[in-house]
Write a structure and sequence with these properties.
This protein is an alpha+beta fold. Helix content is 37%, strand content 12%. The N and C termini lie far apart (36 Å).
Length: 84
């Protein structure tokens, strides 16, 4: 681990992860009842659009995010926080 951190620091490599929630794509299927259950577990009661994840990626690639490093950014509309 110390060797990995050394190279990241030495070469200026930023490491940021994105943890998406349920994204409205064909991979999660088309069962209306299942999709409604998933949607209701999100804060806004809808699945996340792929563009929302892309917006976060775009931000992280920008100079505005250059101080963010070594973190995982959830893009889950509160799925993990508001699950109940």
């Amino acid at each position: 681990m110390a060797v990995q951190c050394y190279f990241k620091k030495r070469y200026g490599i930023r490491v940021v992860g994105i943890a998406p929630g349920f994204i409205e794509t064909p991979i999660i299927g088309d069962d209306k009842e299942f999709l409604e259950k998933l949607a209701n577990q999100h804060m806004r009661k809808k699945l996340i659009q792929p563009e929302k994840v892309a917006d976060v990626v775009t931000f992280l690639f920008s100079a505005n995010a250059d101080a963010i490093n070594g973190k995982v950014i959830p893009v889950d509309d509160g799925f993990l926080s508001f699950k109940g």
